[in-house]
Amino acid sequence: xxxxxxxxxxxxxxxxxxxxxxxxxxxxxxxxxxxxxxxxxxxxxxxxxxxxxxxxxxxxxxxxxxxxxxxxxxxxxxxxxxxxxxxxxxxxxxxxxxxxxxxxxxxxxxxxxxxxxxxxxxxxxxxxxxxxxxxxxxxxxxxxxxxxxxxxxxxxxxxxxxxxxxxxxxxxxxxxxxxxxxxxxxxxxxxxxxxxxxxxxxxxxxxxxxxxxxxxxxxxxxxxxxxxxxxxxxxxxxxxxxxxxxxxxxxxxxxxxxxxxxxxxxxxxxxxxxxxxxxxxxxxxxxxxxxxxxxxxxxxxxxxxxxxxxxxxxxxxxxxxxxxxxxxxxxxxxxxxxxxxxxxxxxxxxxxxxx
Length: 355
Fold this sequence. Notes:
The protein is α/β, with parallel strands linked by helices. The chain is 42% helix and 19% strand. It is globular and about 55 Å long. The mean pLDDT is 94.
């Protein structure tokens, strides 16, 4: 099978972790006789510095013409620390989502047996936690208009906007995921306060009627945030709007033991994007210490979702699991002889080749 993969390494630790993802993909290609073609594109602060645009047209065309996108991270302190910057790296991420029609971010939250004691929660709470969050990506306060500041600079405003079709398609996708799992769906909103959330609850209530086998809960976002900590094992599939999903998935990622472990897939009308959920971690840039496992697991999701190659995806996950069982991991996961980013990537690629 031939696959064209757009590589958007981005900022901070992005190039280092994406390099390991490519390394593992190549090992899978060798083992299963797939032809993988990688082509790099600019995005984020790197793209601003080079061409003045965080998501250049050339990068968009590359993504459109590819079978999948392997993405690293976006963000740079020189923009974070300048509140008056007119162009920001994160605008590239939003533009990519909008132009590629990436309406659903799929984020699995899974705990690993060898890392249970590294979770900030008690072992009995996190053991066997396995749920999926579907976050809507193209609507809400991140895209709503009007948006801006008053002329005197003393007032700022954002608008949260949702359309019926945006809610319908993400809730339907959530229902389909739940049907393939334990048939439990949680819809998260803030319908007691927000008009957009009341539309979410109304539309979701209509969509779930087509899935009578599902057990459906409607939950306010503040309650959901508490219950992820109190009882994470109760969730199976969660669907929610853009900003709530952004916050809740970062919260959920911590219970696994490291933010560097969780992958994601952004699915839409054109090419899907696969990326770890952590940020650019600029403090670690160039030090070869960042955890590459989230990126490598995102590559596993790419083989599964974009190419329907479940055996290849399963082998990548097996290799990652084995690296953790043998404590061949980066410094965020062990103090006992931590390995570098590239060493972990090499170990996993070698495991796949020898398997």
